[in-house]
Amino acid sequence: MENNMIDDIVEKIYSEERISTDDAMRLFAHPNVTELGLLADVVRRRKWPKDQVTYNIGRNINYTNVCWVRCDFCAFYRPPGSDEGYTLPREQIYEKIDELIAVGGDVPKGSEILMQGGLNPKLRVDYYEDLFSSIRNRYPQIHQHCLSATEIIYIAHISRMSLEKCIRRLRDAGLDSIPGAGAEILSDEVRDIIGFRKDRVHEWLAVHRIAHELDLHTSATMMYGHVETIEQRIEHLEHIRNLQDETGGFTAFIAWNFQPDYTALADDQGRWNGIKATGFDYLRTIAIARLFLDNIKSFQASWVTQGAKVAQVSLKYGVNDFGSTMMEENVVSAAGTSHTDTMTLQEMQRLIRDAGYEPVRRNTRYEILN
Ligand code: SF4
Q1: Distance from Cα 317 to the centre of ligand 1, integer Å
Q2: Residue 342 lies in a domain
Q3: Which atom number of ligand 1 is nearest to the Cα of residue 65?
Q4: Considering the domain boundaries, does residue 281 fall inside one?
Q5: What CATH number is given to the structural domain containing 81?
Q6: How high is the pLDDT of residue 341?
Q7: Is 104 contained in some domain?
Q8: CA distance 343 to 329
Q9: What are the Cα distances from residue 313, in Å, to 11, 133, 222?
Q10: Which residues line the pocket of ligand 1, CB cutoff 6 A?
């Protein structure tokens, strides 16, 4: 692997030395994205040596779309009082879980529901306790991977309790783990521009830190390609790496680019330049994230935003996991993403095999299921 521009960084990677933020800046400027992929694959194989790619049988459930936060990059929410706002009746949630069980079977904690919604002023902690405990009682085999830091901060706030108490109560009711949604870019400067009502960086980190301390695993995400600079992307990665050093509670990292359709941000040319991130930007970003986040074991492809083909290619750029079958998607599809209804389990397995890997099923903790 010859390139004088990054020889010193290549050496660090081969000798398992941590790369710096300056190194990451130089990698973003490096013209040879294929070389970044080869390096990222070296790190991936240290953590996942076999020619296997994991996937999860899961389904998304968006229990409510009512949200007062009105983030400018979001096309999913409806403000309180809107005719188009909904909160799913419990029976409808059960029906969705029944459909998941029909696909994923009864493997204990082998299938996950990823249940997320908006910040709905009518739903306090007792609503969620009842929701999680009723699902746990009815479907003890289902892993509840639910909410986001943003939702949890608001639930604690309107229920007048500390974050720690709120997370503890949700966990005791049946919450098994928390997705990394709501991270966007962990820079308050960026958050001021794209969603100023949203939680601050230290608050997002606090939820994950407390969850980890309470033995709840979480994932980390990044939504890039809007108003942030490359420095701010790296700042984001640094926040995640630092917290992972502290707690070790992140199971995986997932990145995707801003999906602009029908969003307020896309309509405001003063803030967004209208240039949608490309597939190369995704591959470069995920490869550099793999090199920088040397303390996170799993990297998940975002087939839903990048499409099946780029997701397949990302397996050569540090990614070891194809994500979830999802079964439905309402958030990025509201913002114009068109890859959301095309992935059956068989298709996912075919894509993994065709890329040269054996597809293996995992649970939400990224443990391989037999
Ligand atoms: S991204 Fe989340 S918090 Fe922001 S408006 Fe959409 S649903 Fe609400």
Answers
A1: 30
A2: yes
A3: 7
A4: yes
A5: 3.20.20.70
A6: 59
A7: yes
A8: 11
A9: 25, 40, 19
A10: 67, 69-71, 74, 76-77, 118-119, 150, 195
The percentage of residues in the chain with a pLDDT greater than 70, rounded to a whole number, is 97
Distance (angstroms) between ligand 1 centre and the Cα of 363 equals 27
Tell me the backbone φ, ψ of residue 106, rounded to 5 degrees: -110, 25
Cβ 325 vs Cβ 58: under 8 Å: yes
Non-local (6+) Cβ contacts of 83 within 8 A are: none
Q: How far is the CA of 354 from the centre of ligand 1 (A)?
A: 36
pLDDT single digits (tens) 122-146: 999 999 999 999 999 999 999 999 9
The token pair at 339 is 């890859």
Residue 266 CA to its chain's centroid (Å): 22
Given the CA of residue 151, which atom of ligand 1 is nearest to it?
3
Give the global pTM.
0.95
As for how many domains the chain has, the answer is: 1
Determine how β-strand 217-224 pairs with β-strand 111-116.
unpaired
pLDDT tens-place string over residues 223-273: 999 999 999 999 999 999 999 999 999 999 999 999 998 899 998 878 888
Domain of residue 48: give its range.
Answer: 4-361
CA 296 to chain CA mean position, Å: 13
Helix 163-173 with 201-213: angle, nearest 10 deg: 50
Q: Structure tokens of 319? A: 């990614």
